[in-house]
Design a protein that fits this description.
The strands form 3 sheets. Strands 2-8-7-6-5-3-4 form a 7-stranded mixed β-sheet, with helices on both faces. A 3-stranded antiparallel β-sheet has the order 9-10-12. A two-stranded parallel ribbon has the order 1-11. Helix 3 runs parallel beside helix 9 (248-259), helix 4 crosses helix 8 (228-238) and helix 10 packs parallel to helix 12. Strand 9 and strand 10 (296-300) form a beta hairpin. The relative contact order is 0.17. 37% of the residues lie in helices and 14% in strands. It has 2 domains: 4-34 and 262-352, Aspartate Aminotransferase, domain 1, CATH 3.90.1150; 37-260, Type I PLP-dependent aspartate aminotransferase-like (Major domain) (Aspartate Aminotransferase, domain 2, 3-Layer(aba) Sandwich). The protein is of the alpha/beta class. Bound molecules: 4'-deoxy-4'-aminopyridoxal-5'-phosphate. 4'-deoxy-4'-aminopyridoxal-5'-phosphate (PMP) binds at residues 82-84, 109, 152, 156, 183, 185, 209, 211, 217, 222.
Length: 354
């Protein structure tokens, strides 16, 4: 027998991780460069006896290091199994239809409505502005009837970015007792984090990931930065669900990754440079490219449906992401890989879509 709850669920569909053949995978915003070298050293010398015991349920050492990196207190940091888990805990802990609808952008990370349905939170999608940016004016107009707000900066799948002064303006004008979650999964690729605003706004929650900027999507590690009391609430949710969502190896690997700023700054710079090169080449070939501050670009070519672009590239062994959603059907989202990978895509695209 299945529960009524289960029958009502519509799960999130992640990008393909095909096992059948080798693809040039530019569909799930993975980083093309390896994680920092210290991780391979750790794995070579790791004493497997340590796996006999449960992992640290509060991720103490890792949280300390994350706190140091952001000049915060350890009590302001929460570690999770990927940032998806942190997001889902935030939805559970901070948003309640009793107080209004949750606000998020019309085109954004498609997990947000899934969590809303999962937890029974009503929501309202706020249209993007004419430049496909998150429209914080639109959020404010709906502020009174809302129970909180969430948006990604840079936004996904558009890649568009809001400068910090816009976010400050929004936080100053939105209700101080309602929670605002900023999903900074892609902040490492040229954006400025809102973490610096945490001292000023107790209702601000920042969710980040090791998956993109730190090349650790397969590890499943994310973290949240916010006020101490809100972190306690996230622990209450975690401890009502799973005592040990972050395993011992993940915590150790995270501790190494979070310290190696030099290595990660280098690969991020390469990705940013490749994004700019790829964007201008595509534009030269007549494509429409939204300005991106993420490790992907959202692009379209007049007269060619996004689905055709996706299918034709797939036939040639290149995977990109298409969203079959009214309003963005013409677009595909392309992850920024290495310069050689993007050059390959450019030459295939030139032949397929002259
Ligand atoms: N937020 C956004 C906007 C994303 O695109 C993703 C990746 N799909 C995530 C959060 C979750 O990333 P992860 O769970 O790997 O940390």
């Amino acid at each position: 027998m299945f529960s009524e709850r289960l029958k009502r669920l519509t799960p999130y569909v992640p990008g393909e991780q095909p096992q059948d053949r080798e693809y040039l995978k530019l569909n799930t915003n993975e980083n093309p460069y390896p994680p920092c070298p210290g991780i391979a050293d750790l794995l070579r010398t790791f004493d497997t006896e340590r796996l006999r015991l449960y992992s640290d349920p509060v991720c103490g050492r890792l949280r300390e290091r994350i706190a140091r990196k952001h000049s915060l207190l350890k009590e302001q940091v929460f570690v999770s199994n990927g940032s998806d888990e942190a997001l889902s805990f935030c939805f559970y802990a901070f948003f309640d239809s009793l107080y209004g609808r949750l606000l998020f952008p019309e085109y954004t990370y498609s997990f947000y409505p899934v969590y809303c349905d999962f937890y029974g939170i009503t929501y309202e999608r706020i249209p993007l502005d004419r430049e496909f940016r998150v429209d914080l004016d639109g959020f404010l107009k709906k502020g009174d009837g809302s129970c909180g707000a969430i948006f990604a900066n840079p936004n996904a799948p558009t890649g568009t970015y809001l400068a910090l002064d816009r976010i400050v303006w929004f936080l100053e004008n939105y209700h101080r007792e309602k929670i605002v979650v900023i999903d900074e999964a892609y902040i490492d690729f040229g954006g400025e984090s809102a973490a610096a605003l945490l001292g000023q706004f107790q209702n601000l929650v920042i969710v980040r990931t090791f998956s993109k900027g730190m090349s650790l999507a397969g590890l499943r590690l994310g973290y949240t930065l916010t006020d101490k009391e809100l972190i306690k609430a996230l622990f209450t949710v975690k401890d009502s669900f799973n005592s040990y969502p972050a395993d011992t190896l993940s915590q150790l690997i995270g501790e190494i990754a979070i310290e190696d700023d030099l290595y990660y700054a280098k690969i991020r710079e390469k990705i940013i440079a490749t994004r700019e090169y790829f964007s201008s080449e595509l534009e030269r070939l007549g494509w429409f490219v939204l300005p991106s501050r993420a490790n992907f670009v959202f692009v379209s070519k007049e007269g060619i449906p996004g689905k055709d672009i996706y299918l034709k590239l797939k036939e040639k062994g290149i995977l990109v992401r298409h969203f079959d959603v009214e309003g963005i059907k013409d677009f595909v989202r392309i992850t920024i890989g290495t310069r050689d990978q993007m050059a390959r895509l450019l030459s295939v695209a030139t032949c397929l879509f002259p």
